[in-house]
Fold:
Amino acid sequence: MTLGQLSVFVLVARLGSVTAAARALGVSEPAVSQALAALRSQHGDRLLVRTADGMTLTPGGRRLLPIASQIVTLGADAEAAVQQAKGGAETLRVAVTSTIGEFVANPLLEAFGKRAGGRVDVAAGLARTAELGVLVANRLADAALGPRLEGPNLESTPIFRCSLVAVGAPRQAHHGGPATWPWLVDPSGADPDSEPAMLLRRLGVPDSMVRVFANQTAAWSAAASGAGVSIAVEHLVAPQLRRHELAHVPTPLTPMPGCWHVTTPARDRCSSAARSLRHFLGTPGAMQVMRSPGSGVPPSRFRPPVYVTIWSASDPSPAW
Structure:
């Protein structure tokens, strides 16, 4: 039984599927299934069984879950303690939503890294809203940037207020109501717990009228060509609006107020690097970066938020 296998078990149990756990860990689904199989063999118990409602814990799995969660947390503490004892840089793993990842995370965390003076090694990666809290609560990420997250042992603090708007090609007429328009979104639009997805639901937009693009920039480009209407954080799309590449498309619910939060474990479980990040995000310098982040980088440039070595029962090499 390894720390990697326990981490996989905790994520599958908390997120409810092998697919979600694999996405959160940045590994393949077969690697997750292999880790689960090794853990099941070790304990002689299926631990998790697939049902119509997703993955369900067996009685043995229910008893193992809180213990496994504690072990994973202690593993993160142990890693941090050894790094500090060696005088090395403290690792800070930050999970972010797709929009923050595309535009804000890189310049923001670069500014934080410079302020930390090389004492913190920052890794950032994309996660869905439902995954953010699970990653932070189980110390598989040290902090999350995105919507407000609620849960035991989580501390979520607002850091930046913003507005969601609808944008489209200038001088293009949009007949009928928003529910009849083609909507062009980034991956956050397919995340049921995200603010863009909530906006689409409130506007009554059916899934059949939504197309998902690899990132926000691609969705905006398609909207500018007249292919439909996109959702944008108003201050991030401001340059395109000023250049008249895009224009506001009025809807009954936009502008829709939004807010970015930083979420970390509760103070007694929070790493020193995460506490430093929380403090930095309240500074004028961080506010300026979030207000005018520049061009950002594509989400593909980000490393996964978590690095977990999954060992198979028969092969001692790590599977990524």
Observations:
- The domain at 88-160+259-301 is CATH 3.40.190.10 (D-Maltodextrin-Binding Protein; domain 2).
- Confidence is low (pLDDT under 50) at residues 295-320.
- The longest strand covers residues 154-168.
